[in-house]
Design a protein that fits this description.
By secondary structure, the protein is of the alpha+beta class. 56% of the residues lie in helices and 17% in strands.
């Protein structure tokens, strides 16, 4: 009996006991589906974060007050936060930092602005970001139309703005050229549109298409308040000099913050690869717990599958005797029942993998991620299903192969 014949006979047997097979199959599908769904969603979130962090480039880093980032919590405890980075401190650092690099200072004025043009307006969820001329280069942003801020506009904090494509689509009928030179308003303040950002799409932590950029001096005028925190980003011209650039930044920023010798830094340096390491470390335990829960579910499915196979062996005792009487060997019987158990497990696994991949991507897309095919978790799902089939089917298959043919033929 070859392998193809074994599969055909296994399918016939599954069809003859369809209800029992379906129940076990769905238990396996749910276990594998939950496992793949959670792991896929985590992967989508990580890839989305990685895309966000790569916006700064491989040769960039940012400076933030201590305890303000992802690493601010360790084992459930938040580290003591440093003082905010004030506008004066950010600008003083930019002035003093003479390393071959580009420094950008920015701050979010508000994240709930409503932008109006004539009789059209956006939802109250538009971020207003105050920035300097270097912001576009450091963030890797390009212009679709118009120009960047001039030195005069920056120094005087003039009411000029560069807007994202989502705002153009809402207010200017998807026509970037039409937006240039027009005046939009946020509350009682009007801004003249001088540029439109090229579309970059949305991600987990930012949507550059749904933002308006204004000169940093203008943001200070309208959005500054006590303990306002400003963002400092540095793009190094030569990626091989990153370590030296960071050391120079730490030294200068300590002077700006007036920290004494021996006093601990109250700020942190963040790089995209460092942030990804933190994220992966923080999600490792979630992955481990997810795999453990999935394995517990599959254990229940394995017990159910073994029970079905034992019942099948009992019901097919006479059939086994006939097979042995016409020349089937003990190994033929063992392989036949083992293939049947593995087939039920793998069919359930295929259904579960598809459901899990779909559900995981749907959840992640709702949260702003992008669709992925989790090949690693698909492979893990197939491997687990194969082993569930082998473990669950081996004892019933061995029991069937060990039956005495004479006793089996007389079984009723």
């Amino acid at each position: 009996m070859n392998f193809i014949e074994s599969i055909k006979l296994a399918l016939v047997s599954i069809r003859s006991n369809l209800l029992r097979a379906l129940i076990t199959l769905m238990i396996i599908a749910l276990g594998i589906g939950a496992l793949v769904a959670i792991l896929t969603a985590l992967d989508v979130l990580l890839f989305s974060f990685q895309d966000n962090f790569s916006d700064l480039g491989a040769n960039s880093f940012s400076i933030a007050r201590k305890g303000d980032g992802i690493s601010g919590r360790k084992r459930g405890k938040r580290t003591k936060r440093g003082e905010v980075i004030s506008f004066d401190q950010a600008m003083e650092f930019k002035k003093q930092y003479d390393y071959p690099a580009t420094v950008s200072v920015s701050a979010t004025g508000t994240s709930i602005a409503t932008i109006k043009y004539e009789d059209k307006k956006t939802n109250p969820n538009i971020p207003v970001v105050g920035c300097d001329k270097e912001y576009l280069d450091v963030r890797g942003l390009k212009l679709k139309a118009g120009r960047s801020f001039s030195n005069t506009e920056m120094e005087m904090g003039m009411s000029r703005t560069i807007i994202g494509m989502d705002i153009v689509n809402l207010l200017f009928n998807e026509n970037p050229e039409k937006a240039i030179g027009k005046s939009i308003s946020r509350g009682n303040v009007k801004y003249k549109v001088i540029g439109v950002l090229a579309s970059k799409g949305s991600s987990m932590t930012a949507n550059e298409d749904k933002v308006i950029l204004i000169p940093i001096a203008n943001a200070v005028r309208y959005y500054d308040y006590p303990n306002k925190n400003y963002n400092v980003s540095v793009a190094v011209h030569d990626a091989l000099q990153m370590d030296d650039a960071e050391s120079a930044a730490i030294g200068i920023f300590r002077n700006v913050r007036k920290l004494k010798a021996g006093e601990e830094n109250d700020f942190e340096i963040f790089k995209s690869d460092g942030l990804m390491d933190i994220l992966k470390e923080n999600t490792f335990e979630i992955r481990a717990a997810t795999i453990f829960i999935g394995l517990a579910t599959l254990l229940g499915a394995a017990i159910g599958l073994m029970n079905i196979m034992l019942v099948s062996v009992t019901e097919r005792t006479k059939e086994i005797g006939i097979c042995k009487a016409i020349g089937a060997s003990q190994s033929n019987i063992l392989i036949q029942f083992l293939v049947e158990a593995i087939l039920i497990s793998i069919i359930g696994g295929i259904i579960g993998i598809f459901m899990g991949m779909l559900l995981g991507n749907i959840v992640a897309l709702i949260l702003g991620g992008s669709f992925i095919i989790p090949w690693m978790w698909i492979a893990l799902g197939f491997i687990l299903c194969f082993f569930v089939g082998v473990i669950s089917g081996f004892y019933p298959a061995y029991k069937a192969s060990a039956l005495d043919p004479i006793e089996s033929l007389r079984y009723e």
